[in-house]
Structures are given as C-alpha cells and as structure tokens.
Design a protein that fits this description.
By secondary structure, this protein is an alpha+beta fold. It is built from 3 helices and 5 strands, in the order ββαβαββα. It has a 5-stranded mixed sheet.
Length: about 120
Amino acid sequence: MVRVTFMPEGRTVEFEYGTMPYDHHGKPMSFLDVAENYGIFLDHACGGSCACTTCHIWIKEGAKGISEADDDELDRLDMAADLQLNSRLGCQAVITGPGSYVVEIPKWNRNYVQEGKPLAAAEK
C-alpha cells in the first residue's frame, strides 16, 4: 500500500501500489498525479511538464521511496523560492514503491483563490 499525507491540510490518501490510474498531470505516480487523482489542490501552472515551480513541495517523510531528481528538475528547482534540501517538484517526484510519504505544500505556494478554489479551503 501507498500512503501519502499532504500537509498542512493533513489529508491522507491510501491506495495499492500500481493501481492508481494516470491522470496526465506530471509523471505517472508523481505527487502531482496522486493529488489530482484524489482532489487535493497542488498548483501546477505548466500542466506538470517541469516548466515552472508552482508544484514545489517539501518531502517530509519517505524520501528513499521516491525517484531521484533528474537534471531538468534540478535546473528548474534552482529557480524555486525557499529551496531546501528536501525540495522537489510535485510533477517530477515519482513514488517508486509501497510506503508512507509525507509532503508539505509551502504556504506561499498555495494559490486557491486564483484557481477558483473556495476561500474556506485557502484559510485552512
């Protein structure tokens, strides 16, 4: 089983590894793909093509079960605000096996109002 918790919302989703349908947002089994499949808002202005940094996340737990960042992602991350050692792009960080994962969407990267999300969700 795969268990992903998105912070600070604290929303956790679980599914059997290899069973989640690809929703065509970022790479298959990326955190963006998981978020889109489960209705969790993770901004992605470029559509998940590694052309921006709006899906910038911090990996809090489970880094060993995630794909290594390739050169394209590393180059793009150099432009991200508040870059940390655990920074990844949600569209590129792929879950490679069963396990528990915790990711944080930085507060400054949550763009609910612009994307038409309800204000109540933005205030959480």
